[in-house]
Amino acid sequence: MLKAYSVSAIVTEGPLFLNIILLFALRLMLNLFRASYAVQELYLVTTTYIMMFSMGSANTVLMFISRFISDCIYEKRRKDILPSFFTTIFWMLLILGPVFGIYIFSLDKPLLHKILNLLQFLVMLIVWIQMAYLSAIKKYLLVLLGFIAATLGSISFSLIFLFAGMEELTAVFTASLIGYLILLILYIKEMIQYFPMGDVNLFLLFPHLDKYKDLLLTGFLTTVGMYGHTIVFWFSEYSTKVMDHMAYCMKYDISNYFASLTILPFMVTFVVSMEVDFYEAYRKYFDTILNEGTYDDIKAERRNLTKTLFRELAHVFEVQCFIEIICITFLANLLSVLGFDLEMLVIYRYLCIGYCFYVLAKSVIIILMYFDSRIEALKVSAVFAVTSVAFSIATLFFGIESYGLGFVAALAATALYGI
Q1: pLDDT > 60? residue 20
Q2: What percent of the chain has pLDDT over 90?
Q3: What is the largest CA-CA distance in the chain?
Q4: Strand ranges in 161-294 using DSSP code E only, listed in sequence order
Q5: Which residues contact 198 (CB under 8 A, 6 or more apart)?
Q6: Spatial separation of the C-alpha atoms in residues 299 and 285, rounded to whole Å
Q7: Distance, CA of 248 to CA of 239 (rounded, Å)
Q8: Distance CA 409, CA 383 (A)
Q9: pLDDT, mean of residues 189-210
Q10: Cα 306–223–48 angle (5° rounding)?
Q11: What spatial distance separates the first Cα and last Cα of the chain, rounded to whole Å?
């Protein structure tokens, strides 16, 4: 059990923590070399935008890609897996590259910085898509080692560039890009070694896309729900404008960042506990049907499946509630020492409650996918997306004391509807 939790923690949380380390390590480099606050702020906000939009764009297709890979493995069409990766990144870069490029080039920044930011977005987009393929080959340790190599590479190159006298922002943007290029190359090398290479066909995914287009929409709506509430507050009276078309809301963004970290134990608990126990009951139920079990046997396995499902859902929710209570009670005091004011602490506590319901809603969506109830999962995601944005907009009219309540109400409604 200890080994299972350790491996799961590395897989689910390792890459995220290393991203955080990289972000703040390069910020520290800027601080050590006496870069101005404006330069540090621009680096953090730009990098956050790139990470958020690249990860959000990739999340839109990851459910669909995971399904395609699973079908290829089941149908023994392994030669289609690697070509599907090249097909996916071709269309993603073709569609999203110009879109993000238009945004980046609309900013009042030096041309070199625009090019570096656009390249990092494209590279990170590819890396997030690679994660689906690396998960399929169970190369969990490679994922972690890749992020470690990328982090160390970025920090090393940033030091070299800064000591060489390169302009601060150019140095950290270039070093960050190099780090993710290292990651991309390591991952693509492993994928090419593992998967047999078939014929690349740019229209390979289209028949599957027609069949599973609802998975794309589910991924997109889930992404809107996760990031939409944050973007709403970029237009609030408490937002800070870095430049035209680039802003952030410090009070909400930082509170949300720390609150979102509280769901990391859920990722481990879900993978190790719920999915394992639920899958065993799920497998027995369908094996009984496929192996010509009696009607009474099928009914008994169905009751066991239902009992296991709701027991594990309750367990996940109970564990998360316990964690959130600890975070609200004790961690909030620590955050006040770190500089959180009263308004930020209130927002943080609201969002912790919201993420408690998020783990329930997310679990329900995954379970619906187990039963191939794609339309139902799509409906739950749609409720999440619409309520997350709409309720957050509504709180803008009630002042900062209500910021975060929209997210809580949205996820409570989503979880209830999903169940």
Answers
A1: yes
A2: 44
A3: 77
A4: 240-243, 246-248
A5: 79, 80, 82, 83
A6: 9
A7: 5
A8: 11
A9: 88
A10: 135
A11: 29
Chain position carrying tokens 């290479």 = 197
Phi-psi region of 240 (alpha: psi -120 to 50; beta: other; left: phi over 0): beta
Tokens representing 92? 């993603």
Amino acid found at 405: L
* C-alpha–C-alpha distance, residues 419 and 416, integer Å: 5
DSSP string over 342-380: HHHHHHHHHHHHHHHHHHHHHHHHHHHHHTT-HHHHHHH
Compute the Cα dihedral for 344, 263, 369, 125 and give only its sign.
Answer: positive
**Would you say 180 and 150 are in contact if contact means Cβ atoms under 8 Å apart?**
yes
What single-letter amino acid sits at 280?
A: E
Question: How large is the angle between the packed helices 295-326 and 275-290, nearest 10 degrees?
Answer: 170
Q: Let me know how long the chain is.
A: 419
Please, are residues 258 and 335 in contact by the beta-carbon 8 Å criterion?
yes
Token pair of 375, please? Answer: 């339309």
Whole-angstrom distance, CA of residue 133 vs CA of residue 84: 10
Reference 187, options 118, 122, 264, 128; nearest CA is 128
Predicted TM-score (pTM) above 0.85: yes
